[in-house]
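Quick question, first post here. What does this chain look like in 3D?
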Amino acid sequence: MTRRSSTVPDRFTPAHIRILAKLATGASSASAALDLDITTGTLGTQVQAMGRRAGVSGRAPLLHTAYRTRQLPLPERAVFAGALDDAEVQMVQLVASGASVQEIADVCRISRDTAKARLKLLRGRVGAENDAHLVMQGWRYGWLDESHEVRPASFLSAVRVGG
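> Answer (accepted):
Ran it through. C-alpha cells below.
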C-alpha cells in the first residue's frame, strides 16, 4: 500500500484494532490478552508489528496514531471535572508524541524524577491507568487532536518550550 505521507501508517488489521481498543481502556497486557483470548506474547508481538507499521515505538504514540488516522473510533467527548494547567496539557501531548520520561523532563526543564512523579500524579488526576490510557483521556477531554503529531524522539530533545 502506498503511503500518503510519513505520518499516515498502513491500515491496521481488525485484530490490531481490537488490541488497540483494549489498550485504550487502560488494560494491562495480561488483562487485554485474557479478554482477547490470546497470549501475552502474541499481544506483545502484535503491538510491535503495529509499531513497525505505524513507524512509532510505544503504546501511547501507537494509540495516538490510531486516533489521528481515524483507524480507531474516537472516545466520546466529555468535560473534565477540573482543569489541567498548560504544563500538564503539554505533558499529555508529549506522552502522545512518544516522548520518553527523560525527553519530557528536558522539554519541561525539570529533573527526570520530577517528570516521573508529575506524570504519575497526572495519570491519577485524570483516571488513567497507564500512558496509553492517558492518551485516550487526552482525546476524550480535548487535550489531543489531529494537530498533535507523533514525532521522532530526536526532535523532542531539541524543542524549546515556554521562553
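Residues 1-7, 152-163 have pLDDT under 50 and may be disordered.
The radius of gyration is 15 Å.
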